[in-house]
From TrEMBL:
Protein name, per record: 2-oxoacid:acceptor oxidoreductase subunit alpha
Organism: Raineyella fluvialis
Superkingdom per UniProt: Bacteria
All residue ranges annotated as the Pyruvate/ketoisovalerate oxidoreductase catalytic domain in the record: 14-203
Residue ranges of domain Pyruvate:ferredoxin oxidoreductase core in the record: 512-582
Keywords: Oxidoreductase
GO MF, one example: magnesium ion binding
SUPFAM superfamilies tied to this protein: Pyruvate-ferredoxin oxidoreductase, PFOR, domain III (SSF53323), Thiamin diphosphate-binding fold (THDP-binding) (SSF52518), TK C-terminal domain-like (SSF52922)
Lineage: Bacteria, Bacillati, Actinomycetota, Actinomycetes, Propionibacteriales
Length: 622
C-alpha cells in the first residue's frame, strides 16, 4: 500500500505519451484517487525523431489524500527511447522504477543524444530499479494476427505499457477498454490491435516474475458529490457556457488557434446545443473584433488567446473599454517573449492584462488558481462583464490549461442568475435615449440592442459626451469620462471579498511572521510547500489573490501585518512590484521563469531560509 505515486510516461511526440498518461489518469480518477497532471510536449508539429527536443512526456500524481501539484520528481519513468531517458532521468527519484523499451536503444538512437554507451547495460542506472523490456517486440508479437505493418503494430506499444502499469498499480481496465472501443470504432483493425496490446501488457505483468510486488493507492476522501476529471481549458469553456446561460445570452466565441488556448475553441465548438456560436477568425484582431461586435448586438462576446494574440487584440480591448460593452478575454499564458516556448507555462502577462492598452483603459482582472477553478473564474468574469459593462480578463496558464484534477460538478441551480438589464425604453427627460446615463450602484451604462425602437444612439472609439453619447472634445468631459471609467472598475471591488489568510495561530496571537501571497497557478506549489513546513512546526501563513484588479480592500492591512511577505510568481516579479508601489510594503518576489511550475521542494527549502533569517518566536528554527 502506498499513499501516493508519481508516474511519468516519456517518448517521441509520436509515441502516444499524452494519450497513455491521460488514460492512466482516467483510471486513477475512476478509482477515486486524487489526481494532478502535467503534460509536457514539443512546440514543433513533428520534432526530429529520437532527439531530446522531440521528447513528449505526461506526468500523473495520484494519491489517497488531497494533493496540490503533479509532483516535482517521478517515482516511475516509462522511457520509450534513449532521448526520453536522458531528458527525464534527472527528475526521477533515486531508487525509482525505470521501465525502458530496449528495442529503441540502438547505436543510432544512442548517438543522437550523445550516450557513449548503452545506459541500460553500463551500470549507470544502478541506483534505480531498472526493467529493460522489449516493449516494441512484445507488442508486435501480440498484434501479429491483425495484419498490421511492423510500423503500425509498434505504435500500440504505448497501450502495452499502459496495460503493464495498470497491472502494477492495480488499476481498473474497463474504462480504458471502453475508451479504445469508442475511439477506434470506425477502424476495427486498430481497435482490436490496441485492445489486444493493452490486455497483453496487463497479462505480462501477471505472468512474469520480473516484478516482485504490485502496489495499491487507496481512494482519497472527498466531499460527497459527482466527480469527473477535468482540465483547465475544458473547465474554462464550461464556465463560459454556464455564465452565458445564467445571463440568458447567446455565447459568441471568436478566436484564432494558438497554443495553449486552442482547446477552449475546440471544446466550445462541440457545445452548440447550449446556444454557443464559435467563429475561427482569420487572425487574432478579427477574433477580438467579432467578439466585441457580438456584444454590441446583445450577445456575450468572448475571445481567448495567449500572449502574442493578446498583444494583437489590445486595440480592440481598448475599444471595448471606450464603448463600455461586455467582453471576456481569456489569456492562457505561455512562455515568452515573442513565440518564446509556446508549449511551456508562465505568468508573465500580468502587466499586459492590467496596462497593455493605449490611454487610460482600466479592466478587471481575475486569475484562476487550479484547473477546476477555471470554471468558477469564468463565471465570475461573465458576471462582472455583463453587469458592469466592461471587458474582463481571465488569466490562466499552460500549467492549468493542460493539467487535470477531479472536479466536483456543481448543481447549476446553486449559481446565481446574471442580469444583463437590457435597455428597453428611452431614459431622457424629453423622451430621448441617453446611452451614458449610469446605474448608481455599478456605474454601468445602458446596454441597448441595435434595432430597438427609440434607442438609437452613437457608439464608437471617439470620446463621448457623458450623457448624450455625442462626440465630445471638451477637456472637462474627457476628465469626467476617464475618471468614471476608472471608478466603475473600482466599484467592482464591492464584489471582491476580503482577502482570507490561512494562519492557524493568528487568532491566539501566535501567528506566523512570514506570509506567502500567491496568485494563479502558484496556489498549488505554495500550499503544498507550506503544508509540509507546518508538519515540522514551522509557522507560515498563506493567502491567494483571486482578483488582481481591483485588489481586495483589506490587502494593504494584511501585507502590513507580517514581517515578511513572499510572492511566488512565474515571472520576474510583476505582482510584487505592483504591491510594493501601491502599498509601500517590502514585498519580496520569488521568481521562477523556467517554463515549468514552481518546484515544491525548492520553494520549501527557500522558505526555511527566510524563516531562519527572521528567527522563530518558539525557537524552533533558531
Amino acid at each position: 500500500m502506498l499513499n501516493r505515486v508519481v508516474i511519468r510516461f516519456a517518448g517521441d511526440s509520436g509515441d502516444g505519451m499524452q494519450l497513455t498518461g491521460d488514460r492512466f489518469t482516467a483510471e486513477a480518477a475512476s478509482f477515486g484517487n486524487d489526481i494532478s497532471t502535467l503534460p509536457n510536449f514539443p512546440a514543433e508539429i513533428r520534432a526530429p525523431q529520437g532527439t531530446i527536443p522531440g521528447v513528449s512526456s505526461f506526468q500523473v500524481h495520484f494519491a489517497d489524500f488531497d494533493i496540490m501539484t503533479p509532483g516535482d520528481t517521478a517515482d516511475v519513468l516509462v522511457a520509450m527511447n534513449p532521448a526520453a531517458l536522458k531528458a527525464n532521468l534527472a527528475q526521477v527519484k533515486r531508487g525509482g522504477l525505470i521501465i525502458a523499451d530496449t528495442a529503441e536503444f540502438t547505436k543510432r538512437n544512442l548517438a543522437k543524444v550523445a550516450y557513449p554507451a548503452n545506459p541500460l547495460e553500463d551500470g549507470s542506472l544502478d541506483d534505480y530499479q531498472l526493467h529493460a523490456l522489449d516493449l516494441t517486440g512484445m507488442t508486435v508479437a501480440a498484434v501479429h494476427d491483425f495484419g498490421l505493418s511492423r510500423k503500425d503494430a509498434s505504435r500500440a506499444k504505448n497501450m502495452y505499457a499502459l496495460g503493464l502499469l495498470s497491472w502494477l498499480y492495480n488499476r481498473d481496465t474497463e474504462t480504458t477498454l471502453k475508451f479504445l472501443s469508442e475511439k477506434f470504432a470506425g477502424k476495427p483493425q486498430l481497435r482490436d490491435a490496441n485492445i489486444t496490446a493493452f490486455r497483453t501488457g496487463y497479462a505480462f505483468g501477471e505472468t512474469t516474475e520480473t516484478f516482485g510486488v504490485t502496489y495499491q493507492v487507496a481512494p482519497a476522501p472527498m466531499p460527497a458529490g459527482r466527480y469527473r476529471q477535468i482540465s483547465g481549458n475544458v473547465a474554462l469553456a464550461y464556465g463560459l457556457v454556464a455564465g452565458a446561460q445564467k445571463a440568458g445570452l447567446q455565447l459568441f466565441f471568436g478566436a484564432y488557434p494558438i497554443t495553449p488556448a486552442s482547446d477552449v475553441l475546440h471544446t466550445l465548438s462541440k457545445l452548440k446545443r447550449f446556444d454557443v456560436m464559435t467563429f475561427q477568425a482569420e487572425d487574432e484582431i478579427a477574433a477580438a473584433g467579432s467578439a466585441l461586435g457580438a456584444s454590441f448586438a446583445g450577445r456575450l462576446g468572448v475571445t481567448a488567446s495567449s500572449g502574442p494574440g493578446i498583444a494583437l487584440k489590445s486595440e480592440t480591448i481598448s475599444l471595448a473599454v471606450m464603448t463600455e460593452l461586455p467582453m471576456v478575454i481569456c489569456d492562457v499564458q505561455r512562455s515568452g517573449p515573442s513565440t518564446g516556448m509556446p508549449t511551456k507555462t508562465e505568468q508573465a502577462d500580468l502587466l499586459m492584462a492590467l496596462y497593455g492598452r493605449h490611454g487610460e483603459a482600466p479592466v478587471p482582472v481575475i486569475a484562476a488558481q487550479s484547473p477546476s477553478d477555471c470554471f468558477n473564474a469564468a463565471i465570475e468574469a461573465v458576471r462582472v462583464a455583463v453587469e458592469y459593462r466592461t471587458p474582463v480578463f481571465v488569466l490562466t496558464d499552460g500549467y492549468l490549461a493542460n493539467g487535470a484534477e477531479p472536479w466536483n460538478v456543481p448543481h447549476l441551480d446553486t449559481i446565481p442568475a446574471i442580469d444583463p438589464g437590457f435597455a428597453t425604453e428611452p431614459n431622457g427627460p424629453k423622451g430621448e435615449f441617453l446611452p451614458y446615463v449610469r446605474d448608481e450602484e455599478t456605474l454601468a451604462r445602458p446596454w441597448a440592442i441595435p434595432g430597438t425602437p427609440g434607442l438609437e444612439h452613437r457608439l464608437g472609439g471617439i470620446e463621448k459626451d457623458s450623457r448624450t453619447g455625442n462626440i465630445s472634445y471638451d477637456p472637462a468631459n474627457h476628465q469626467l469620462m476617464t475618471d468614471t471609467r476608472q471608478a466603475k472598475i473600482d466599484r467592482v471591488g464591492r464584489l471582491v471579498p476580503p482577502l482570507l489568510v490561512d494562519d492557524p495561530g493568528r487568532e491566539d496571537g501566535e501567528g506566523a511572521r512570514l506570509l506567502v501571497l500567491g496568485w494563479g497557478s502558484t496556489y498549488g506549489p505554495a500550499l503544498a510547500a507550506i503544508r509540509r513546513m507546518r508538519k515540522t512546526g514551522a509557522k507560515v501563513a498563506h493567502a491567494q489573490l483571486r482578483w488582481l484588479n481591483p485588489f481586495p480592500d483589506n490587502l494593504g492591512d494584511v501585507l502590513r501585518s507580517y514581517d515578511r511577505v513572499i510572492v511566488p510568481e512565474m515571472n520576474l516579479g510583476q505582482l510584487a512590484m505592483l504591491l510594493r508601489a501601491k502599498y509601500l510594503v517590502d514585498v519580496r518576489s520569488y521568481s521562477r521563469v523556467r517554463g515549468l511550475p514552481i518546484s515544491v521542494d525548492e520553494f520549501e527549502a527557500d522558505l526555511f531560509e527566510v524563516l531562519r533569517e527572521l528567527g522563530s518566536r518558539e525557537g524552533v528554527l533558531q
